[in-house]
Design goal:
The protein has 110 residues and is an alpha+beta fold. Helix content is 40%, strand content 29%. The longest helix has 14 residues, at 12-25.
């Protein structure tokens, strides 16, 4: 897949789109590469966990993300944005964080 080795997205929206697409495809490397981690070691650890999961879990993840839609992007400051995701009718705000000029989905909030 194009740019699966690349870290983050050029915009908050792109980072979230990358995560959604990666989850649908079961591309865990791309998924991890678009999520915020305090260190590369943390990213590697998560990737190892992802890769040890069975296919049922992957299908479940794909199902969860397949209905996600980006509703709007709200900039908080130059390094933090909130992307509103529509998930099965509900709207869920997701934090996106800028690190070294690239954007990452930050599941732990700010």
């Amino acid at each position: 897949s194009s740019g699966s080795g690349k870290l983050g997205g050029a915009t908050p929206e792109e980072a979230v789109k990358n995560v959604i697409a990666a989850a649908k495809d079961g591309d865990f490397e791309k998924l991890a590469n678009n999520m915020y981690f305090k260190s590369d070691g943390d990213r590697t650890k998560l990737l190892e966990e992802f890769n040890s999961l069975d296919d049922g879990w992957k299908k479940e993840l794909a199902k969860r993300y397949s209905g996600m839609e980006i509703k709007k992007v709200k900039s908080i400051n130059e390094n933090i944005a909130i992307v509103e995701l529509k998930i099965s009718g509900d709207t869920e705000p997701t934090y996106v964080k800028k690190v070294s000029g690239r954007w990452f989905m930050n599941l732990s909030g700010v």
